[in-house]
Amino acid sequence: MDNENLTRDEAAARSQLLRIDAYDVALDLRNAEDPQETGFRSRCAVTFTCTAPGSSTFLDFISKSVESVTLNGMELDLGSAVTGARIRLDGLSERNTVIVDGTALYSRSGEGMHRFVDPADNSTYLYTQYEPADARRVFANFEQPDLKAAFTFSVQAPSSWTVASNAVVDRREDGGQDAGTWRFAPTQRISTYITSVLAGPYHRVSGSWQPMNAAAPGIELGLYCRKSLTASFDSEEILDVTRRGLTFFSDLFDYPYPFGKYDQAFVPEYNLGAMENPGLVTFTEGYVFRSAATAAQYEARANTILHEMAHMWFGDLVTMVWWDDLWLKESFADYMGALAVAEATRWDTSWVSFANKRKAWAYVQDQLPTTHPIVADIPDLEAAKQNFDGITYAKGAAVLKQLVAFSGFEAFIAASRSYFRRHAYGNTTLTDLLDALADATGEDLSTWARQWLQTSGVPTLGAEITLDDAGAYASVTVRQEATDPVTGKEQPRPHTVRLGLYSYDAAGDLVRTASEQVTVSGDRTGVPGLIGVRQADLLIPNDDDLTYAKLRFDERSQATLLTAVDRVRDPLARATCLAALWSTTRNADLSPEEYLTAVEHAAPRETGVGVLQVILANAGTAVERFSPPAARPALRRRYGTLLKKGLMASGQGSDLQLAWARALAGAARTAGEPTGLLRALLDGDAVVPGLEIDAELRWMFLQALAAHGLTTSGELEAELAADNTASGKVGYTLASAAFPDPAIKRAAWQEAVHGDQLSNDLLSATIEGFTLGGIELTRPFDARYFDAIGEVWQRRGIEMASRVVRGLYPGHSDSDGGPDPSTHPAVQATDRWLAGNSGAPRALRRIVIEERDHLLRALRAQQAG
Asked: Rounded to an integer, what distance in angstroms lies between the CA atom of residue 624 and that of residue 635?
């Protein structure tokens, strides 16, 4: 549809002209259970004021049709008023009311009003998802974050359903013929993208939370999931985390939870981990654990719950003016989620998980050609959609952790409290936060912000040492390398870091023997406090993971890590070192064989299941993507042996055992040798004591077997009949597309690229299955990919198109032995497309550019390895 891509300039002009008072939105969902009905009635009345009477503006509405538009009592001519996704409003008065009556579309992409039919019982479920700008797929509105308003929703739906929204139900009316109408109370002033509606036969669990201030009113809590998931819904655990979080944040921010009730819904086919709709937070139902789940999965769920809760203040109460400052909510929520898990729940490994996994996402994103500052340049909505990335979330959170080390936690929290009080229910920019920080710290942090928030790239920190004759440090200097890849300029940043010294104790473990905190400035900073200290076996330049930087170890420390990283006793120090080794491998400064050797030492002794999962996955990537093709068979055998031994040696029924089993299934997708064990485990011909082969593991095993042609469509159909669930259907779809059969690959390609019947989850499963089974089967589609992606982007919404463009990129190619990876056929094909499509949408070009870089990195590593 035309006119979908709102620009920043257009939004700024509209915000200068308008102030929105209220929305009254009526949705008729009574036909949702009829699969032949593609749309639903949407009626929206908006009241607003205009600073320049007589001027013009426009509403946003991506719809099936518009039946009528009435402005200040006058019905508009639809032929001239409606153009694509915009409704033009001319001749505005000082005070205005516009009413738009139209038909919106049900979605299968997770955008707008998503409709899902549960294969377990054929029940129909609806939920909305809008960020950054998909409320306009459900009702007409002014779709930008700084035009806040109060929203009143009215929903007609089958009377047996549960219906929820941001606010409490004001009244419910019987509509007759098995239908009802739910009328909700008005919300506080919020942005369009965080409004929400939930409708369907959801299972609901009720609870409550009482603030520590006994005089304050209690908060009603609600949890929702599909009926067929009720048996797996550990609602008491979720409610416990919720109560702990509300207590923690209300006290920390010294500002009561501002949105009345607190509902949380776990919904099917969700595109995100969760969304911070005030009063009705939505989550992927992947957090309802149908099969065995590890402690790391429970911790990750708690992190997401608390991340979204932090948004009630950072993002919902106070919202960025435009998407340039997306970090003002996402970076803070990412940091606060990790902090709250560490401080308010039973999990004590939150910062280990952050160092081990979350920051790794940021390091990858920040080394792509498309890197950008944390405070990004977002000219339009397409750019905004692409910026929900590792820089905005994880790098921003890591930089906030550094800010806390730099300025102090108390000052940081004082600034946050002031920020909420000054800007409640309003919109802000970077300047507003800096003003609050300046008041709290007594310092002008604009230079710090420019160095950290308005530059790009990952700095590298390393310790350069010299020794005296007695083997003690004669000098220790922290060397910083920091070039902004966007500008090409040197951009050293201030780092408050702790240098940790670790040496072997009597038990053979590496323990901290000394540390020194220092503020790094410029490219070289001396550390006089370590002069005269005996050289340690390991010197960590970023002990306690206080800053955001890649690490370069001195020669002795590097040798220690390659043979004894498992001996680092402190979990956070160990995770920091393992992450640094992986970063070095990605940069082709450490060979895949060397990294695998380090993992062979580390993995069998690793006690943290989250860390184990990450290093095993990294080892698989090192073998399959970064190792030279000639060396890969031997490395596959070593990796397979490591996984089998780890599986057999891990504790019976333990989280670690489950992690080893999942890694083995993942490795078997490409390496054929482990498939024999998987087949035997499925058939009952082999038993690993304590390992339950539940539904999730069965599908993982079958997907690996299908990729090698070691199962049949009949076996997959029988498995689906036994597991006729949403996740079972996804597992079946992936396995069915994985067979090493040209006809199956053609069918999968046709459905993914040219079809329109797959929902978002099933599209991803089809794409993933297509990529399995051997590169020789997918290579014939490489040229077709570049012929198709322009049309895919034009025909499909950005969510589904992004899955196709990213997932089907021919990036699993191996080095062809040429001296220059840029001459590889897949790289050259990409370059030809980029050169010939300079006018393609920026978001499409960004995906292609990023995938090209991932391929080039792999090819360079293969050559270096």
From this structure: 9
Largest Cα–Cα distance in the chain? 93
What are the distances in angstroms from CA 482 to CA 379, 425, 857? 27, 38, 20
Gap between the Cα atoms of 359 and 335, Å rounded? 11
CB burial of residue 763 (10 Å; 0-12, 13-18, 19+): buried
In this structure, the number of other CB atoms found within 10 A of the CB of residue 716 comes to 23
State the DSSP code for 688: -
Type and span of the H or E element at 74: strand 74-75
Q: Compute CA 33 distance to the chain's CA centroid, rounded to the nearest angstrom.
A: 31
From the candidates 131, 269, 276, 308, give the one annotated as an active-site residue: 308
> Alpha helices, DSSP H only, in 669-824?
675-683, 695-707, 713-722, 726-738, 742-749, 760-771, 775-778, 782-795, 798-807
The contacts of residue 178 (CB under 8 Å, 6+ apart) are 158, 159, 160
- The b-or-e profile of 449-474 (16+ CB within 10 A means b, else e) is beebbebbbbbbbbbebeeeeeeebe
Contacts of 741 (CB under 8 A, 6+ apart): 709, 773, 777
- CA pair distance 585, 562, nearest whole angstrom: 12
The rounded distance, in Å, linking the Cα atoms of 129 and 28 is 17
Asked if 594 is an active-site residue, the reply is no
Do residues 748 and 758 touch, judged by C-beta distance below 8 A? no
In tens, the pLDDT along 747-790 reads: 999 999 999 999 999 999 999 999 999 999 999 999 999 999 99
On whether the CB atoms of residues 851 and 804 are closer than 8 A, the answer is no
Give pLDDT tens digits for 307-355.
Answer: 999 999 999 999 999 999 999 999 999 999 999 999 999 999 999 999 9
Instruction: Show the CA angle centred on residue 596, arms to residues 594 and 601, nearest 5°.
Output: 100
Contact 325, 372 (CB under 8 A): no
Neighbouring CB atoms inside 10 A of 709's CB total: 13
Give the CA radius of gyration of the chain: 28
774 contacts 741 by C-beta, under 8 angstroms: no
| Integer angstrom CA distances of residue 616 from 558, 578, 584, 664 | 20, 11, 16, 9
The whole-number pLDDT of residue 865 equals: 73
Give the C-alpha separation, 257 to 279, whole Å.
Answer: 10
pLDDT tens, residue by residue, 790-808? 999 999 989 999 999 999 9
Q: Give the bridge partners for 39, in sequence order.
A: 105
Question: Residue 231: what residue type?
Answer: A
Contact 115, 106 (CB under 8 A): yes
| Structure token pair of residue 472 | 């003690």
| Residue with the two structure tokens 């929105």 | 20
Calpha distance 761→800 (Å, rounded): 10
Kindly report the backbone phi and psi dihedral angles of residue 477, in degrees, each rounded to the nearest multiple of 5, phi listed first.
-130, 130
Work out the angle between the directed axes of helices 726-738 and 760-771 (0-180°, nearest 10).
30
How much is the pTM?
0.97
Three-class secondary structure of residue 845 per DSSP? helix
Report the distance separating Cα 616 and Cα 660, nearest Å.
8
Assigned token pair, 409: 């936690």
Nearest to 224 by CA among 273, 164, 170: 164
Q: Is the distance from CB of 736 to CB of 716 less than 8 angstroms?
A: yes
| Contact call for residues 448 and 476 (beta carbons, < 8 A) | no
State the distance between the two ends of the chain, measured CA to CA, in whole angstroms.
Answer: 48
Cis peptide before 485 (omega within 30 of 0): no
For residue 1, is pLDDT > 70? Answer: no
Distance CA(204)–CA(206), nearest Å, equals 7
What is the rounded CA–CA span in Å between residue 667 and residue 319? Answer: 43
Token pair for 334: 């990412």
* Strand (E) or helix (H) holding 574: helix 571-586
Q: What is the pLDDT of residues 448-497, one digit of tens each?
A: 999 999 999 999 999 999 999 999 999 999 999 999 999 999 999 999 99
